Amino acid sequence: MYKNELDKHIQNKTVSNSFVFFGESSFLIDMYTKMLTNIEEANILTCYHDEYDFHLAKAHLSQGSLFGDRNILVIKREKKIPKKELDILLALCEKNPDNIFVYAYYGSDYKTYNNKKTFAKTTTMSVRFFHPKEYEAQNIIAQLAQEKGVNIDKYTISHLLKIHNGDVALAANEIEKFRVFDRAVTTKDVDSLVYGLASVNLDEFVKKLLEKKDFRQNLQNLLEHGEDEIRIISAITTSLTQLYMFHIYIRINGAPNALDILGYPAPSFVVEQKASAAIKIKPQTYLKLHELLLKSELQMKSAHSDKSALLLSSLIRLQKLI
Hints:
The protein has 15 helices and 5 strands.
């Protein structure tokens, strides 16, 4: 099912007690995981990534509560849980309706989870989350602002989202800053307190990189606006990954489809720009570019060298590879 179907079940109080969440939006996966497990006095066990231990997870759902409260298991991983183990954990929820189990899968290999037959013999709700559309993102931020007592209108929220290139997670993190105001937040307040990659046009920065143009002024602007080197190189890696997805899709299908590639529709001129840039780079070159960026990111995290100099050197080498 999709987010809107889950929302209806939540509204009608007909949700199951076991869930498998996956898809493109880690933010929505986290948001709904928290929403459905936020139960007072519950006995909750959360396993992150390699912390997952099947025997511990099974024991948690199998044990009876000492005080009659509920046992909740949350597993957050990028690696898949073995099918036999997942089936057992889901079966434990089928036997005991007081249990709650949420499997938040952040990996990209979710084809089997997206198949309605996979969990057909259970009441498990398998939900795929796409990146929120613009109006959905605005509603999410508006709801969060209301919960935190922040007075901000949708126009200002839209401005905030644009600063962060539509990234709901980044925009949501900024809401806490606005609690200092005892009045309505304005776009000027946003500009003075928030610095995002979009404020200096990350797309233009990446475009210059790929076209082998001089990018140094853009890079300087990014750094002056408070962005650190690791975050910048991660953003470039993400952009290249997206272009690679366009490249492969075009090679297989002949033409790009933003809904299939990105999970949401995009303006035709944006699709054309990305498709044009994507197809110019050879598949083996994408591999070399990603290896360079990942190696550079690792060096920045582990070394005590000048990160700015290392970033500049890496980007110069990146342009030579294209």
